[in-house]
Amino acid sequence: MTTEEANLGGWSTVKPVTKEVKEICIEEKSEIEKKTAINFKDYIPLLYKSQTVAGINYLVKLDICQENGTLEDKCVHVMIHQALPCNGGKLTVTGVQYPKTITDPLVPF
């Protein structure tokens, strides 16, 4: 049993974003933009934590640049739930925190 498996229901350690998590963030970009009321030109997932509970919760740190090209010293923290495959695997943005800085820790909210 891995440490992750032994921690079912708890949050993982912070990890670099995987290809799968990047794809989830790209798929949910418009929903995250709606919740922050900002259109992002650059939108770079950096780090994430995950939690397995009736699906997977992802807590992701995204580095951003506004649509007008203004460089931001800000990040967005976003929580995304992915339902189990047997329940359709639907993605839902469950929370967004903005603004955050690059040094703010990923803390579930």
How would you portray this structure in words?
- This protein has 109 residues and is an alpha+beta fold.
- It has one domain (3-97): Nuclear Transport Factor 2, Chain: A.
- It contains three helices and five strands.
- The protein has helices at 3-6, 19-27, 29-36, and strands spanning 15-16, 40-52, 56-66, 71-82, 91-100.
- Strands 1-2-3-4-5 form a five-stranded antiparallel sheet, with helices on one face.
- The longest helix is centred in the N-terminal third of the chain and has 9 residues, at 19-27.
- The chain is globular, with a radius of gyration of 14 Å.
- Mean pLDDT is 88; it is low at 1-6.
Can you give me a brief rundown of this structure?
The protein is of the alpha+beta class and 109 residues long.
List keywords for this structure.
Nuclear Transport Factor 2, Chain: A; 109 residues; 3 helices; alpha+beta; 5-stranded antiparallel sheet; disordered N terminus
The main β sheet shows up as:
5 strands, antiparallel
CATH architecture: Roll
Cα-to-Cα separation, first versus last residue: 28 Å
Trace the largest sheet across and list its strands.
Answer: 1-2-3-4-5
**Which structural class do the helices and strands define?**
alpha+beta
Strand content: 35-45%
**Approximate helicity band:** 10-25%
> CATH topology, what is it called?
Nuclear Transport Factor 2, Chain: A
Average pLDDT confidence is 88
Compute the gyration radius: what is it?
14 Å
Number of helices: 3
Order of helices and strands: HEHHEEEE
Number of strands: 5
When the domains are counted, the total is 1
Apparent shape: globular
In the predicted model, the low-confidence regions spanning at least 5 consecutive residues are: 1-6
